[in-house]
Amino acid sequence: MKKHRYSILIVILLAVAALILWLSQSTSTFKRALSDFAVKDTASVTRIFMSDKNNNTVKLVKEGPGQWKVNDKYQAQKLTVEMLLKTMSELAVSQPVASAAQDNIIREMAVNAVKVEVYQKVYRIDWGGWIRWFPHEKRTKVFYVGGATQNNLGSYMLMENSSRAFVTYLPGFRGFVSPRFSPIEKYWRDYTIFRKQIPEIASVKVEIPGTPELSYELKNNGSNFFTFISLADNRIIPDYDTLKALNFLSGFRNLNFETLINDMDLHRKDSILSSPPFIVITLTDTAGVQRSIKTWHKQGPEGQTDPLGNPLPYDLDRLYALVNDGQDFTLIQYFTFDKVLRPKTFFLREASGNKN
What we know:
single chain, Immunoglobulin-like, 2 domains, 9-stranded antiparallel sheet
């Protein structure tokens, strides 16, 4: 009977110990969850949603390996999304916000923080990664990203439904990561205007309204052989510089605008758009998809002169450009686009010495 009592006592003690261990682990897990901002498996991320109190929202949706869409409308900049994913995977916590400062920081974050929602592909049955059944999308993390710490070496972050803010940082990075969680749409958009290899190009039409006799079109006849057409009289010019033409066409491999200026003063913008464009380029690819860009001269900065000291009427570095079917008003750089801003005479053999 005494031995039986000892056995019962041992079982009770073991049960109490197990309960204490379980409670301590649960508490520890709970504490970790309040500061577990990092997303280790970024390959499984399917969607990221960011928003602020000013009604700015960005939804990034994964369409395929390395391919993301912004707000269901635009292709996303690959490098910018990759930087965000890398940031989320490496986020670390340096310390909780001091108790005396908690209330102030949380009040400030309630006004200025960016809400971040992360969705991932998960499995209802997942046995150590060996057996994975029933995949589905699940919202796995929701947290708020506040401003920078006073030393600009960390960012304040807060988990949803938590009252404890933490200071986060990126190991090896001297700065704060808050700007990487921007809910502003234009910062995530891909700035590509043209991205075509020569075999993908069916035709390129270059129209110069101010001097229409310099307008032309190159049409692909197959095997990288292009017909050169003078648009003013619809005349085929057989003897043109094919090497210059191929260099011109190769310039469409990767052409991007510099910045979006859709928010320019409406009166000023309308004034520019109502004036005759400088050059209009229309590229049609072999799939029949057409994309155009209209350009206008930009007024040069005050004091800009030529080598003789004469004031220059136009900016020598940038042009205005209307792209994406007229939806976006942008700035482009001559440095990037000069290779495709060529008049007809550039390709004519008798004008081979012409630089423009």
